[in-house]
Amino acid sequence: MTDKTILRALAGETLPTPPVWLMRQAGRYLPEYRATREKAGGFLDLCYTPELAAEVTLQPIRRYGFDAAILFADILLVPQALGADLAFEAGEGPRLSTVQSAEDFARLRGVDGIHDTLSPIYETVRILSKELPRETTLIGFAGAPWTVATYMIAGRGTPDQGPARRLAYGDWETFLRLLDLITEATAEYLIAQIDAGAEVVKLFDSWAGALPGPMFERVVIQPAQRIIAAIRARHPDTPVIGFPRGAGVGYKSYAQAVDIQGLAIDTSVQPQIAAQELQPLTCVQGNLDPMLMVLGGDPLRREARRIKEALSGGPHIFNLGHGITPDADPAHVDQLLEAVRG
Ligand code: CP3
């Protein structure tokens, strides 16, 4: 028996008050985050400096007492560890070298060398597992292979993931080789995070909703199954949260086919439907609209209580449907916690 409420919810327990944390809870909406990021130099310097990455992970825990801390890092560190060039231009988002042909793919490194690049991240996890309050659960994470592939193929964020869809239709063999390489690297990366002290891991498939339906099984479900099978071989008891964002009706097949202990849902899913269709299968995490963290006040309180109530009959972790945005007001997080915790 544990007193960590996140672990209890992921074990299937229905709690009177759902535990709560927020996607991107360490981020630009917090002045102390902006100060530490400034001190680090750039965003990637922050990710690769364990003491500072641990510091920004802890900031929202100190300020709000969330039930979980999520490791501060980024899903695009895995492509970098595989040999892609990566930079974050101020105000422009990520830029990477592209993988659009068998020749481009051949320039990537194999999985064996990834820990050389990623070892500072494991050090961040080790620091956090010592410094977090005993009731706070430490969540590690990685991008799911499809979502990571969309950035590696396009070399940047795209509104419609067009370059990745084009490669999948036009050169399925190269696309699958890339997907399989990321799958293998991601399994190794998450296992190393758990070895270092992560108590839960989350797979972010942010662009699962952009994938043509017939590819969902091979490109979203299968890689998640493989990653979790590899984790289970080493760490049979570590809970996994899956987030196939935008999957629509695919959420149910994902929850049935993949050995997850938690399913994060985006804002498009009706909480009542999630309670009927998804909560009997697994713990549901979500799904307040991040816009309400900008607006605050009664609309925030009303909607938070509605979600809490709708999902109160089964295991639930309260969260947003996507990351908190830089224009959110830090005081609105206090309003949210009061509405959820009473
Ligand atoms: O607090 C946390 O949630 C933990 C840290 C975390 C970050 N990114 C830090 C970050 C996590 C879990 C991520 C995941 C991530 N990164 C995803 C999946 C989740 C999602 O939002 O859909 C994706 C797609 C990325 C890739 C990425 N990282 C992009 C497209 C960008 C630029 C857009 C932006 O918001 O600026 C980032 C940068 C990034 N990752 C920031 C943070 C706090 C902002 C960088 C800054 O400080 O300027």
From TrEMBL:
Instruction: Give GO terms: molecular function aspect only.
Output: uroporphyrinogen decarboxylase activity
| UniProt superkingdom | Bacteria
Domain named Uroporphyrinogen decarboxylase (URO-D): which ranges? 19-28, 139-155
Write out the residues that bind substrate. Answer: 24-28, 74, 151, 206, 322
Record's keyword terms, sorted = Cytoplasm, Decarboxylase, Lyase, Porphyrin biosynthesis
> Where does the protein end up?
Cytoplasm
Keyword Cell division attached:
no
Q: Name one GO biological process term.
A: protoporphyrinogen IX biosynthetic process from glutamate
Q: What is its EC number?
A: 4.1.1.37
Q: Which family does it belong to?
A: Belongs to the uroporphyrinogen decarboxylase family.
Stated role = Catalyzes the decarboxylation of four acetate groups of uroporphyrinogen-III to yield coproporphyrinogen-III.
Q: What is this protein called?
A: Uroporphyrinogen decarboxylase
Q: Which organism is it from?
A: Candidatus Rhodobacter oscarellae
Q: Which gene encodes it?
A: hemE
